[in-house]
Design brief:
The complex is a heterodimer of chains A (113) and B (114). Chain A has 113 residues and is mainly beta. Chain A has no helices and 12 strands. Chain A has strands at residues 3-6, 11-14, 19-21, 23-26, 33-38, 44-50, 56-59, 62-65, 75-77, 86-93, 101-103, 107-112. In chain A, the strands form 3 sheets. In chain A, strands 2, 5, 6, 10, 11 and 12 form a 6-stranded mixed beta sheet that branches. Chain A has a 4-stranded antiparallel beta sheet with strand order 3-9-8-7, with no helix packed on it. Chain A is globular and about 45 Å long. Chain B has strands at residues 4-7, 10-13, 19-25, 32-38, 42-51, 54-57, 65-66, 76-78, 87-94, 103-105, 109-113. In chain B, strand 9 and strand 10 form a beta hairpin. Chain B is globular. The chains are: A mainly beta (113), B mainly beta (114). At the A-B interface, strand 6 of A face strand 5 of B.
Amino acid sequence: GDSVTQMEGPVTLSEEACLTINCTYTATGYPSLFWYVQYPGEGLQLLLKATKADDKGSNKGFEATYRKETTSFHLEKGSVQVSDSAVYFCALSDDTGRRALTFGSGTRLQVQP
Amino acid sequence: EAQVTQNPRYLITVTGKKLTVTCSQNMNHEYMSWYRQDPGLGLRQIYYSMNVEVTDKGDVPEGYKVSRKEKRNFPLILESPSPNQTSLYFCASRVPGLAYNEQFFGPGTRLTVL
């Protein structure tokens, strides 16, 4: 079945450092790929998406490129802020009737001032 | 404001005592779903509903029931909770009409079964 693997956390960075959170996937067909963010005490929010190979999703300074050849969707940001501290989930979409999202295990990011 | 609400947000109960976690959305979405989040496992789908009176099992349905009598509500029922159902639960609804699967999530319900 489908699966998503993302790097273990926590990731601790200083403010203005560069961020990369690795995500690779296994899926049949051509899934859509997502990054969701979960701030403390809140539900998940969609951060960015890519629906086909070579698409780049971007939002709030975060970017991720859908790489079909390496089955990857790494999350990057050039300069993190304290407010980016959260848990980040990579996910892929089952575009059949069940419409389930398959999530990675999540990566906690802690940004220190 | 478009939102998915869940109640209660926190619940501590004992083994075997039936409970219901409510979920409601105000966006007229047809598709709704329940997930549980456990450390190191991400979120896993419990049940989903494509529309009123249409529900089906997700990846981890054992020990749970759902119903969908109205479009806006999708309660999760634990008839005889056990400690292995201690988890963080999220309800979600899907934005219709998009080419991709965007889902809105509720704030979560943290359940502890003693």
